Amino acid sequence: RSMSSVTVPPPACLLRPLEAPLRYLFGPGPSNVPPRVLAAGGRPIIGHLHPEMYGIMNDIKKGIQYAFQTENKMTISMSGSGHAAMECAVFNAVEPGESVLVAVNGIWGERVAEIAERMGANVHKMVKAPGGYFTNKEIEQAVEKHKPVLFFLTHGESSAGLCHPMDGIGDICRKHNCLFLVDTVASLGAAPIYMDKQSIDILYTGSQKALNAPPGTAPISFNERACQKMFNRKTKPVSYLFDMTHLSNYWGCDGKPARAVYVSFNPCVSLQGLEESWRKHKEVSGYLQRGLEDLGLKLFIPERDLRLPSVTTIAIPEGYDWREMLVYIMKNHQMEMTGGLGPSIGMVMRIGLMGYNCEKTNADMALQALADALKNCKKTRG
Ligand code: PMP
């Protein structure tokens, strides 16, 4: 018997079959994906330099341009989750010491503020409670005061369930020579956004929400103004991996041939078309909201028009422990719903019906599960 040279034995757990139970992913993402997308994940691996790969990348780029409603050449999909695109946007557009203005009305503004602080930007926050929104006047006043090079706003604030109005903000930023950065991770495909028409300079999203792909790739696009700023920097971005001078070359955005890319999946940009997808999310979320009110639950966002059509938030009903309800629903209905995130923890429960999951039959299932939890999780008081 020869002595083994390895000191760490092979883990027994790797010999067990992979366990991935079927769950109804009715939280704020990831969502269930259609069989066609699941099947795409089983296709053979091809090399990153093969001609077919460039074809796939070009198709992905066209799909993103359509989904973003932009003609920007600098349109790619990052390897990584939505957070990768958040960091990519900030790292490339901002240099240390520059002023950045962040609208914070939930966790996503908080995160972007922290990302910008970590890379040494001079960060100014406009803060509202979760579910709050900013008027164009408030935004213009803050832009005038802080003179930022970048203003960040979340379109679909998934921690609070708010869909922020977008009109006119891009023009304000343009007037004050500031780039407008918008997060649409939780809203793209569910609520209308028009990158070019709304003068958004940098826009990103995630793959695992209404776009119906698995997590792991994050589409992002930069317009000419953003490219002017980020390719005329004095300092190099703090991240090598996320440096757009490399990424734009990988994706063939800089006129030179594309070199390499690491993309897990083709984000399946809505088979049904954007307008139909927006219509359906509005219809199904309206249906869900009525059902929730019929159960006696209170919607967290009072203004109907500002409710995010992909993620619906309800105020935690009195006399209940939200954690217990969520555990009950998972255990008895194999269904994921979630609590709040960041500043909305303890304030809301969240139900996401997006992309493939956006169906009235799923809304009915979610409502039944909630009704069951309301019946069985009530705390005896006194
Ligand atoms: N922004 C928003 C609005 C989100 O909803 C999320 C994900 N919940 C993210 C950013 C971060 O994306 P990821 O989890 O893919 O990193």
Automatic annotation (TrEMBL):
Gene Ontology molecular function: alanine-glyoxylate transaminase activity; L-serine-pyruvate transaminase activity
EC number(s) stated in the UniProt entry for this protein: 2.6.1.44, 2.6.1.51
Keyword flag Nucleotide-binding: no
Domain Aminotransferase class V: 24-359
Entry keyword Transferase: yes
Annotated positions of the N6-(pyridoxal phosphate)lysine modification: K209
Binding residue positions for substrate: R350
One Pfam family named in its UniProt record: Aminotran_5
Name the record gives this protein: Alanine--glyoxylate aminotransferase
The protein's assembly and partners: Homodimer.
Cofactor(s) listed: pyridoxal 5'-phosphate
GO cellular component labels: peroxisome
Family: Belongs to the class-V pyridoxal-phosphate-dependent aminotransferase family.
Superkingdom to which the source organism belongs: Eukaryota
Protein keywords: Aminotransferase, Pyridoxal phosphate, Transferase
Catalytic activity: glyoxylate + L-alanine = glycine + pyruvate; L-serine + pyruvate = 3-hydroxypyruvate + L-alanine
UniProt record, GO biological process: glycine biosynthetic process, by transamination of glyoxylate
Cleavable signal peptide: none
